[in-house]
Amino acid sequence: MSILPVLAAGSLRRVWQPLMAQFERETGLLTETRFGPAGLLRARIEAGEPCSLFASANMAHPQTLLEQEKALSVQRFAGNTLCLTAASQCVDEQSTWLTLLSNPALRIGTSTPGSDPAGDYTWQFFANFEAEFGIALRPRARQLVGGPDSQVVPDGKLAAQWLITSGQADLMIGYRSYAEALAFQRELRVFEIPALYNIQADYGLALCDARAEPLRAFLTSGAARQLLLQYGFVA
């Protein structure tokens, strides 16, 4: 039996194993997934890497593949938002997401715009924040993960956890789908960003091979949606 090669955004890694396990039980089809920043994965598909289905953390990369006739169809299948993670020693009883981001002494870690949609969403959030509050965040931001030359996050670690506990950043802007897992780390505090100021991340599928149509159908099904919700994604 052939195996469907899948490329998926790194932020899907935690939920992907249960998703694929359920898909394979229901269909008998097998998958093999490689993870990475969605922008870099798109470049690999453009360069000819075999891919039956591409799961991106934005809609732009799948749409680009469709326009290049490297995808048969594109569809949104999940959503996400942003949250703020802080080193516990930077937090006191009065701390909020706003006071922490407004503190010029705190270094902000981010993913890399262009290569990783998380970086693009973060820069969009920064622009809105600066326009609303008149406080510049982009000059304090350090693009630490998600780029072609970025350090690799150690196995078993979440990016925010590793960057903060290793002293590379005091704060990290990342996806809210990680919030529950990060909240278990005693050295970290996770802060919600109010919806008024938050960014909606739309995840898209690019069907690149008709043989992966059952997988596309599964990922847009109610069963998959329930798993995504359990792992902190939004409908």
UniProtKB/TrEMBL annotation:
MF (Gene Ontology): metal ion binding; molybdate ion binding
Keyword Signal on entry: yes
Superkingdom of source: Bacteria
InterPro entries, alphabetized: ModA (IPR005950), ModA/WtpA (IPR050682)
NCBIfam families named among the record's database cross-references: modA
Family to which this protein belongs: Belongs to the bacterial solute-binding protein ModA family.
Protein's name according to its UniProt entry: Molybdate-binding periplasmic protein
Species assigned in the record: Cedecea lapagei
Gene: modA_2
